[in-house]
Write the structure tokens for this entry.
Amino acid sequence: MKKIIVNLIKIMLIIPVFSFYSLAQETEFIPANFTDDRDSLQNLIEFPDISENIDVLVRCSSELSRFGSFQTLVCLPVQYPVLLQAIADVIFDAEMSPARRDGSRIGVKVPFSIRFVKDGASENIFVYPNFGLDTERLGLNFTAPQRIIRDLRPGGDECLFQDYGDYWSGVLVSEVGESMEVSISQPHNLTERCVAEHSRLISTFTFIPAMADGMAAQATYYEQSPLAGVRRDNYQILNGADTDLGL
């Protein structure tokens, strides 16, 4: 009996050690960041020739390589198409500080927004590391969640012969980068079973959580048709009326 009690005490003493070891081994993520270098997006974009005063926010999403180079570009439409062209003209020459996992560089999908402001002779461009949503709660310059790139096959039999390239997904991402809730906006021509399968697959994504004032924060990640490919060296203008994001 005494031997059993001694062994139980040993087990109780070991458990906290294992718990501490597990916490100490948590993965460290650093999101991709815009810089003020010569090849940063903000320094490369040229303000287009627009005669009237404007204050326009363009919302975009890009795949970023592990070396910090932009691979794709998808933007919501705005009143002035020349703003989208100004971004597309330089996006593949621009670079960001790459995302990292435990010190190693990784590819991520990055939501961002660009504000074009013209007031008389004054022309200014501001680049924000978020989609322009959640800013009232987290601030203008918070870094939105970023999706870690990995290959995923679209839904199986539930999505055979269906066009799945034109919808927006929103994923509520926790402070530890886990998917908490998935919503799919205006999934044209998709059956309910296919939408459910897409939601299931999207919920398996891994994210770098949002960062606000140096702290991880809960925020929503937005991406257009994450299970459909977008070609490099091509930018796509989407139908903003179909996003249902409250923009």
